[in-house]
């Protein structure tokens, strides 16, 4: 763990002539293994570059090009030997750890989330398409839903002519189609969707808009049932020059770049909005929103309380057991030890779920059998739920503390205790003044690590109580036993509207705390080592 | 601790404690141990009993071992997605463990055996990165996989390989240091000797170093396996379809739904899922004690 460990002095680029790697020697199998691997890597990269080009994902495209060039250079050049060993891990680290952490920081300053999922352009199209209404006085057409090369479209009959169009292409006359009774039954180059498949792809069919012509003001065809279509047009007019939407009743919605929304003078807005930077709004909202600030502060406090109490309780029990059973006169210690670590060996996520069942108010074994039919609401009452969480975490966590304390106790030399006895210190004094300080040297860093772990112990909270009981009236689904990380999860995925921006801002808070704790941990390790 | 010295004193006078004194000094410890064992074992007995109870509901499992049958287990392996979940969990955990070991060892080899620009900086950066658990960035991971789905569908949401790739992103930060320390204990003279004999850097790495560090590779691999096996939050956000679940997500879905929960199935599944991990833990405990995992690897 320490950087201080001196690596062996190995100047590999020594005086001897640079040895040709077998992966460069055409007569050795190593070269062909490398060649095949690099071919796969290049194929993978080129495929991604083309796909990114097709999707117009320019950032991803640039990243892929750079990575591919670097990879080819690293593995085909004679230099850069260390890079050959570092690159695979580094690529994963950069993408899935560094980039995502940086992106968390970026998203924390935006309003990214449901209703603000995309950029402005797609948002405008979306507003137009979702605000359409049937044009007065236009007929309905019997419509056939068709599949043209993988994209859905409509086929209709107008003036004895068959017209076919898709989401992308407006209606065009088609020759060679078969029609019966005003309804198209066969289209060359496209397959007619049977009713069952229309039902299966219901949402796609309902969202389908086929433009009547190239001019959006002519409107588009849409269907509500998959058999009859009507002509619809947006009730909003988009004015590109002024960047406004005008409704039929004359209300003007103006783009508000601060909120990422089109807003009318009366305060109403169009949905969806788009993604914008909102400054530190997400950070201050926790403290300024009156419905949030109370629950948020309680959660913050409880997160610290939970992490600290978890470490203290598990450490106390673990230490007690370690001290009591660090006694050679007790027979069967090996057996006891094996039993004591069972809870630790049992997968944590399963243990939380099992305890949840055991603590169930009406059917759980603890109320029903152990307490003879009591109906204590272990997980539904705020205070009891917190106690339950600590109790379950005690069960889960004390064996680890028992193990590390046993190890640490056994490494304390017996002479020190003897010296204590000589000096006339009683057992208590020897424990507090000798054993414990020595024990802490090796155990303190682990306690700090354990604190950091419990600070983010998402699965325990999420599986045992789900954060409940919930705070009534809070605009988010958060509860009394939620800790910061489970609150983040709730804000991001479970509070109805997904608010990635707000959730990321909360994660940044966790990052800061965890960073501080780790720094403390390192400092502590150094400081305690100096004592000896 | 006082006992160490005491034993010696006691042994000098009297090799065996008897009667009241035995009870005062040793006997009560056995009683204490029995109470603790009851505490430790009770939930495990409970889940075992629920797994064997054919009733299959939470209510039916309040009396331990009243009915014993293998019905839940047969049901589990014939009519549910459970076998798929086991398979998924094993695929994800195994590939992640192997990938972690190879990438971590390669990086440790580079840091331990080569001197290059940015080496110290790289080590320090890794030290800082490993402080921040990857799962803290789960929102950005979700968004990344959402975007990647359009370009590489097999690395996007709903894909086991997408999940594995995410886990591998945490591989270097968490394990390089552990291996780096171990690599440094292997004398560089061995490398020099091999080089003089005409070995290339690849031969030294694959043929010599990797064999000498096998113990640490095994430990890192197994720890990574256990950690991945129990990982929940990332698996939960990446995998949404029941047939794609890993054991952690699938059993959560069964166990969390209290009213209609297939409790018997959940319990049986929990027993099956726990056995390999308990066995691995018993084997790994000495490494865990030595502080290798600092803070615990529980998922």
From TrEMBL, chain B:
Principal localisation: membrane
UniProt keyword Transmembrane present: yes
Residue stretches spanning the membrane: 31-52, 85-111, 123-148, 160-183, 204-226, 263-284
Localization per record: Cell membrane
Keyword Membrane among record annotations: yes
Pfam families for the chain: BPD_transp_1
Domain ABC transmembrane type-1: 86-284
Membrane topology qualifier: Multi-pass membrane protein
InterPro entries for this protein: BP-dep_ABC_trans_perm, MetI-like, MetI-like_sf
Gene3D superfamilies the record matches: MetI-like
Keywords: Cell membrane, Membrane, Sugar transport, Transmembrane, Transmembrane helix, Transport
UniProt cross-references to SUPFAM superfamilies, sorted A to Z: MetI-like
Protein family per UniProt: Belongs to the binding-protein-dependent transport system permease family. MalFG subfamily.
Name of the protein: Sugar ABC transporter permease
Protein's organism: Propioniciclava soli
């Amino acid at each position: 763990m320490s950087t201080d460990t001196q690596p062996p002095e190995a100047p590999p680029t020594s005086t001897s002539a640079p040895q040709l790697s077998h992966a460069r020697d055409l007569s050795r199998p190593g070269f062909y293994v490398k060649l095949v691997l690099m071919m796969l890597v290049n194929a993978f990269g080129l495929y991604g570059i083309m796909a990114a080009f097709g999707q117009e994902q320019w950032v991803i495209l640039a990243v892929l090009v750079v990575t591919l060039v670097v990879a080819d250079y690293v593995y085909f050049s004679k230099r850069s030997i260390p890079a050959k060993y570092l690159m695979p891990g580094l690529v994963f680290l950069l993408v899935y750890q560094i980039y995502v952490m940086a992106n968390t920081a970026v998203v924390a300053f935006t309003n990214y989330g449901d209703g603000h999922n995309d950029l402005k352009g797609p948002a405008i199209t979306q507003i137009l398409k979702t605000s359409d209404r049937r044009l007065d006085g236009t007929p309905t057409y019997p419509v056939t839903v068709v599949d043209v090369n993988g994209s859905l479209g409509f086929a209709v009959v107008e003036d004895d002519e068959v017209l076919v169009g898709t989401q992308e292409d407006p209606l065009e006359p088609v020759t060679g189609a078969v029609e019966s009774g005003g309804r198209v039954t066969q289209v060359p180059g496209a397959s007619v969707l049977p009713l069952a498949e229309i039902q299966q792809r219901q949402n796609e069919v309902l969202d389908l808009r086929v433009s009547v012509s190239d001019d959006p003001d002519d409107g588009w065809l849409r269907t509500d049932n998959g058999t009859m279509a009507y002509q619809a047009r947006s009730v909003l007019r988009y004015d590109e020059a002024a960047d406004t939407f005008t409704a039929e009743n004359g209300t003007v919605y103006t783009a508000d770049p601060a909120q990422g929304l089109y807003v009318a003078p009366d305060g109403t807005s169009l949905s969806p909005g788009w993604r914008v930077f909102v400054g530190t709004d997400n950070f201050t909202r926790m403290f300024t929103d009156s419905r949030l600030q109370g629950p948020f502060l309680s959660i913050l406090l409880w997160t610290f309380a939970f992490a600290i109490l978890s470490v203290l309780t598990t450490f106390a029990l673990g230490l007690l057991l370690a001290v009591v059973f660090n006694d050679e006169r007790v027979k069967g210690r090996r057996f006891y030890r094996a039993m004591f670590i069972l809870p630790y060996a049992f997968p944590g996520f399963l243990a939380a779920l099992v305890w949840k069942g055991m603590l169930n108010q009406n059917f759980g074994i603890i109320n029903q059998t152990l307490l003879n039919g009591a109906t204590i609401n272990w997980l539904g009452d705020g205070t009891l739920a917190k106690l339950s969480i600590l109790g379950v975490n005690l069960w889960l966590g004390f064996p680890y503390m028992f193990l590390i304390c046993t190890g640490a106790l056994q490494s304390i030399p017996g002479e020190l205790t003897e010296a204590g006895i000589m000096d006339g210190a009683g057992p208590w004094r020897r424990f507090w003044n000798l054993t414990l300080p020595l024990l802490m040297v090796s155990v303190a860093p682990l306690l700090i690590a354990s604190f950091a772990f419990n600070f983010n112990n998402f699965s325990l909270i999420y599986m045992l109580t789900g954060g409940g009981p919930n705070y009534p009236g809070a605009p988010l689904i958060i509860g009394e036993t939620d800790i910061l990380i489970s609150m983040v999860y709730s804000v991001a995925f479970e509070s109805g509207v997904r608010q990635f921006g707000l959730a990321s801002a909360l994660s940044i808070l966790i990052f800061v705390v965890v960073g501080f704790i780790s720094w403390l941990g390192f400092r502590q390790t150094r400081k305690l080592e100096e004592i000896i | 601790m006082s006992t160490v010295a005491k034993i010696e004193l006691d042994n000098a006078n009297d090799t065996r404690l008897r009667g009241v004194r035995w009870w005062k000094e040793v006997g009560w410890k056995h009683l204490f141990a029995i109470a603790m064992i009851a505490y430790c074992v009770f939930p495990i007995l409970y889940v075992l009993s629920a797994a064997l109870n054919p009733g299959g509901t939470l209510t039916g499992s309040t009396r331990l071992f009243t009915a014993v049958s293998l019905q839940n287990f047969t049901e589990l392996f014939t009519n549910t997605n459970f076998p798929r979940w086991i398979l998924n969990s094993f695929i994800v955990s195994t590939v992640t463990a192997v990938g972690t070991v190879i990438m971590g060892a390669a990086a440790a080899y580079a840091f331990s055996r080569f001197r290059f620009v940015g080496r110290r900086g790289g080590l320090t950066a890794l030290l800082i990165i490993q402080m921040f658990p990857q799962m803290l960035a789960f929102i950005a991971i979700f968004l990344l996989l959402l975007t990647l789905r359009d370009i590489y569908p097999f690395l996007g949401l709903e894909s086991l390989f997408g999940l594995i790739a995410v886990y591998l992103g945490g591989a270097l930060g968490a394990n390089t240091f552990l291996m780096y320390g171990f690599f440094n204990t292997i004398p560089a003279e061995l490398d020099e000797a091999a080089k003089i004999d005409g070995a290339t850097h690849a031969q030294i790495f694959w043929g010599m170093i990797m064999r000498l560090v096998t113990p640490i590779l095994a430990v890192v691999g197994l720890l990574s396996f256990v950690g991945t096996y129990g990982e929940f939050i990332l698996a939960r956000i990446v995998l949404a379809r029941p047939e794609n679940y890993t054991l952690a997500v699938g059993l959560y879905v069964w166990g969390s739904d209290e009213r209609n929960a297939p409790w018997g199935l959940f319990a049986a599944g929990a027993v099956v899922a726990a056995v390999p991990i308990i066995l691995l833990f018993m084997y790994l405990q000495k490494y865990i004690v030595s502080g290798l995992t600092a803070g615990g690897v529980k998922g």
